[in-house]
């Protein structure tokens, strides 16, 4: 059984586009929830001053992460009109091809990709006991 993967993406919001980011997040969240059943969580957060935007993604394993990123180029091109990459983090082990692709994207965008491949014992509760 594969271990879960957390992918965190950080972005800088372009000036005057904060409300557009809010609207886009709502639209994309609904679309991804319907189209990507393997994505366990897609949680966007906006900073208090609206200049940065972070998305926390949770996947049960590398296949679900790969499926989530299918079609991401199309989603990203529209989204990058509103914000630009500021860095990415991966916790867990995606497929090697997926990781290579993310490294190449990070290099092209001039941002850091931090990878913590070894998951240690832990837990996730769907709801508090």
Report on the structure:
By secondary structure, this protein is an alpha+beta fold. The chain has one domain: Alpha-Beta Plaits (2-Layer Sandwich). Helix content is 37%, strand content 28%. It contains four helices and five strands.
Q: How would the global form be characterised? A: globular
What percent of the residues sit in helical stretches (DSSP H or I)? Answer: 25-40%
CATH fold label: Alpha-Beta Plaits
Amount of beta strand: 25-35%
Please, how many domains? Answer: 1
Intertermini distance? 25 Å
Q: Largest sheet, order of strands side by side?
A: 2-3-1-4-5
Order of helices and strands: EHEEHHEHE
CATH architecture: 2-Layer Sandwich
- Radius of gyration of CA atoms, rounded to a whole number: 15 Å
Taking the sheet with the most strands, its summary is: 5 strands, mixed
Text of the CATH class: Alpha Beta
Discrete helix count: 4
By secondary-structure content and strand pairing, the structural class works out as alpha+beta
Mean pLDDT: 92
The residue ranges in which pLDDT falls below 50 over 5 or more consecutive positions are: none
Number of strands: 5
């Amino acid at each position: 059984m594969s271990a879960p993967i957390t992918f965190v993406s950080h972005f800088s919001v372009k000036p005057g586009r904060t409300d557009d980011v809010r609207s886009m997040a709502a639209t994309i969240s609904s679309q991804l929830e319907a189209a990507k059943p393997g994505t366990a969580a897609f949680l966007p957060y906006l900073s208090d001053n609206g200049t940065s935007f972070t998305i926390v993604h949770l996947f049960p394993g590398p296949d679900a992460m790969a499926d989530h990123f299918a079609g991401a180029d199309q989603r990203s091109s529209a989204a990058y009109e509103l914000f630009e990459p500021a860095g990415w983090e991966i916790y867990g082990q995606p497929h090697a091809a997926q990781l290579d692709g993310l490294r190449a994207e990070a290099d092209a965008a001039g941002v850091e990709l931090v990878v913590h491949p070894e998951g240690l014992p832990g837990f996730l509760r769907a709801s508090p006991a």
